Every structure is written in structure tokens, then in C-alpha cells.
């Protein structure tokens, strides 16, 4: 599905190589088992797609299994809306999970393992404040200091931890910490917090719990309980791996998955963190999570990007350990490549200029054109022609430059799939703006049966004014003005002109067609908006650099 051929070893990334080694050495108990573990605190973005394509992709290629696991340990920020959106996005990308699981499915086990840690002298209840814990942790160059509560007796720890669970304490009064090493060069190993008190209802467990386990403690145990053969995560967790391993070595699980890190996807001219995307939504910089300017899967989908294009993109960027920002051009390339073959063609006039055919005697004439010039199977469309037309304002020039291939006073162009016309007269309004062109057409120049011998300048698109359907066309630019917006300053880098709204027209046949995505000839790819059928979102231009 990802377009990768597992038999072709030259294209294999380090994760696939590792999987094959593990297979060859028969190290896998139940074959390849992966998981995609989102926290349901926002919508998925194209960075998540990289992780989805990797986790589901390797399982598919090596005959394995993938779980969709919600990492729902922080009820303050999580919601059912996000859970449903995430499921929808993964399915839309074309992947099937073996089961949906949740970190919260394992809350009882996680609690029991924590009690075991206390019994084994590996965890203690710490009553310092959050701020005191932070201060005592030390820095990269200085060791931390032991908590004064570090040597509490097992009995006291068990009692306090049980009472934490029972709801006897307020948020922040106590935490459970691992007892590892306050002098460790790795700050993550300096007695990290395993549980905190949060008197907050959880979207699945309701009020059953008021203590919630931390990510680093939870994730590895869930991986072990689910028999994950390769726990794939992004590079920022590399420094957490010793803690991942410590937890699994110190709780009674009979299986210890390997954590393997790969680089996060970054994309030029956008941000890729749910925290920052939340701010764009909350501060109404965009219209919502599915605003077509967003790098979310919902936004890309609404803009008209196909799942196939995103999978192709993820396959092309590959999987490495080098962090970098990928050029937007690569994503655009993948989008075009997919739509090139699949999108029906039609005509849309984005900035209309009126053309009157002065020698047109009939009412209207039905012409036809192919939906796709290279794919006859898409069939033909009907193209009504009449004496009043719309053409693109840009396709006319009063003072054309040399080699002008479009319409100008006294010049001829072909109207695609129709006739050659000549501009005889230009009518301007009081402000000097051209408002109408009066043209004559050549009856013997009809496309496919042209006997006129005329040599027009070029070919332009057009619509019959009486038949064209009015449509709003939303043309999107980059959301940020700089290629590398930074988390601390990104709000200042927002492009104020990231959306242009045009009142144009499209062919009636486009409105009747069941397809969502079209190429407007000479213009680009456009998609019917999911909320409003009279609106088209521009997906991508026809060529790079527009
Ligand atoms: P964010 O900062 O956007 O909230 P996150 O890593 O906290 O990202 P999670 O919901 O925890 O988001 O992520 C689920 C999975 O997706 C994780 O395994 C994470 O490593 C992966 N992931 C998130 N962002 C990216 C990215 N930009 N590139 C590749 N993988 C990513
Ligand atoms: Mg996260």
C-alpha cells in the first residue's frame, strides 16, 4: 500500500532492515506487531501520517498486526471528539487496525505494577511541590538532590499511594516517583514522576480514577502488554529510552519490546505540533482544524489532497534519524502526480471578463469535450456554447507583450473545444477598466472540424454565461511567511494573505459530476468544499512555483 517493495533491499530503511534481521534470527514471538499511539488531544497532522504509514506499513509488508492505541493518560486535554477524528483520519489514509486499545484499558494493571515497584523499594511517594521537584532535579551540568521523602518506608508509601487513589488528597499534594538515581547524567532518570493526582473526569473511565500515570511509565508497559515487537517513536524520545527500559526491567512483565527512534517530519512554511495548531484554531487564525490551510489530515483532505498522495509523500521522504524540514514542493509534487491521472478536467473562470460574440445568431449550441484527454474511460462532457461568454480576465491584454499567446485587440484565439474568435472592440467602464470584449467567431473553425485555415494565437478556456454556475473559489497560499516558523514566535510569522476568495464560474457539468476533485484546465486542481457545494478549494497549482 505504501508503494514499497519489501523485496527491493536497496530502498530499505534502517527500521525495515532491523525487522528483517529480527525475523531472520527468529527473535519475534508473534511476528511484527506495531502500534500507532496518538494522544487524543487534537487532530492528526501530516507528521502523524509519517508515523501511521510507518507503523501500519511495516506490519502490512511483513504480515503483522497494528493496534490503534489511544494514549489517554492526561484527561485535562483529551476528548471523545479527538478520538473519533483520529479514527476517521487513520481509516481515510487507508489503514486497518487490528483493534483499538487505550492506555486507560490498563489503568488497573499499571496501578498494580506501581504497587509492586513500591514493594520492591523502587518507587516512593514524594510530597514536594511540582516546583520543588523541578528545582531538585538539577541541570545538565549539576546532579539533582534526593527528595527528603525518598526514604519513606514501604508501608508508608503503600498507605499514601492507596490514599492517593482513594481521593484523600488534592491535586499536587503528592506524586509517586521512581527511585533511580538523582545523579544520573540523564535527567529523565532522576527519580521521574510515575503518577500524579488529577481530580478530573476521564473521557472513558469517568471518575473511577483521580491518579493518572505518566506517559513514560505507561507507554512501555502498554507496549509490553500488547506484545509490540517494535516500538517506533520519534527522536525526542531517545533520551527517554533508558527509562522505558528501566520500567520494563523493574515490573513483572514477561516481554520487553525494543524502542526504536526515527526523525519527526517537519514541513516548510507550517508548524506541526498539536499545541501550536490548537492556538491557530483557538485564536481563530484559521476556521478550524479542517481549514484547508492547516497541515492536519482533515485540512489537507478538505483542500482536496488524496490519501494516496499523502502515502506517496510519506514513502518518498523515507525513514531516517536525521531531523529536517521537507520542502512543500515535494508534497505538492505528490498531490499533482496523483490528481494528474485521476481528476476529470473541466473549465473554471476565476476572474470573469465578459465576451459578446456579435455574429452569433443561434440560442445555444451543445459542444463536447473529454473529461480527460489521455483517459477516454472518463467519458465526455457537454459544453454549452452561446453568444455571451466568460473568459479569464488574465487572458486578455490591451497592450500585449511580445509573443502573447492569448487574446488582445484585433487578435485571434481558440476557445478550447469550440471556435476561433477575434477581438474586434474593447469596452471600458468609466474607471478605464475593461468590462466587455466584442468579438466575432468563425463558424468554420469548430474544434475537430476546422476548415478555416486560421492561425490563432493560442487556446484559452471559457464558459457560456447563460449556463455557467456561479462558484466561490478559495485560493490558498502558505500559512506562514517564513519556511521555518518557530514555536516561540510563530504567531508573528503568519501570512496575512493566506486565503484569496474569488467569485467565479464553473462548467455546469462539473456541478453535476459526482467527483469531488477536478483540474480546471490551465488553472490547477480544485476540490468541491465538503461544507458547501458552491465553493471550490484550490488544492494545488498545475506547476511548481505558482
Ligand atoms: P504533537 O507535538 O503534534 O502533539 P505528539 O508526538 O505529542 O505530537 P502524539 O499524539 O503523542 O503527538 O503522537 C502519536 C505518534 O505520532 C507518536 O508516536 C509520535 O512520535 C508520532 N508523531 C507525532 N508528530 C510526528 C511528526 N511530526 N513526525 C513523525 N511522527 C510524529
Ligand atoms: Mg504528545
Which short descriptors sum up this protein?
alpha/beta; Glutamyl-tRNA Synthetase, domain 2; Ribosomal Protein L25, Chain P; 7-stranded mixed sheet; 27 strands; elongated; binds adenosine-5'-triphosphate; binds magnesium ion
Molecular structure report:
It is a single chain. The chain has 3 domains: 6-262, HUPs (Rossmann fold), CATH 3.40.50.620; 273-345 and 472-540, Glutamyl-tRNA Synthetase, domain 2 (Orthogonal Bundle); 349-467, Ribosomal Protein L25, Chain P. The two termini are 31 Å apart. The longest helix is centred in the N-terminal third of the chain and has 16 residues, at 46-61. Helices cover 26% and strands 24% of the residues. The chain is an alpha/beta fold. It is elongated, with a radius of gyration of 31 Å. A 7-stranded mixed beta sheet has the order 12-25-26-27-23-24-13. Strands 21-18-19-20-14-17-22 form a 7-stranded mixed beta sheet, with no helix packed on it. Helix 2 (46-61) packs across helix 11 (307-317) and helix 7 packs across helix 8 (241-250). A hairpin with a 4-residue loop joins strand 18 and strand 19. The structure holds adenosine-5'-triphosphate and magnesium ion (MG). Adenosine-5'-triphosphate binds at residues 37-39, 47-48, 50-51, 71, 233-234, 264-265, 272-274.
Poorly predicted runs are none
Average pLDDT for all residues: 96
- Binned strand content: 15-25%
For the CA atoms, what is the radius of gyration? 31 Å
N-to-C terminal Cα separation, in Å? 31 Å
The neighbouring-strand order within the major sheet is 12-25-26-27-23-24-13
What proportion of the residues is helical, as a percent range? 25-40%
